[in-house]
Amino acid sequence: GMEYQGEARNLSGRGLMFEANVEPAVGANLRVTVSSNQSRMPPLHASFKVIRVHKQKNGRFEVAGELSDVS
Known about the structure:
- This protein is mostly beta strands.
- The chain contains no helices and 5 strands.
- It has a 5-stranded antiparallel beta sheet with strand order 1-2-5-4-3, with no helix packed on it.
């Protein structure tokens, strides 16, 4: 499938908010990988359901949703 990159803004046990150049559809189910700048932290892999998309003034999209199947 397609692969896109974004920048995480907020991460919790149940949700994620990130900024991206691409607008996913609300309700879309994605696979996400969240990497840390700290090399000792392994990447987080999860299923992600898009709940909200907000277009920002800079033309990028703020995407928020629910995480599940986290590994």
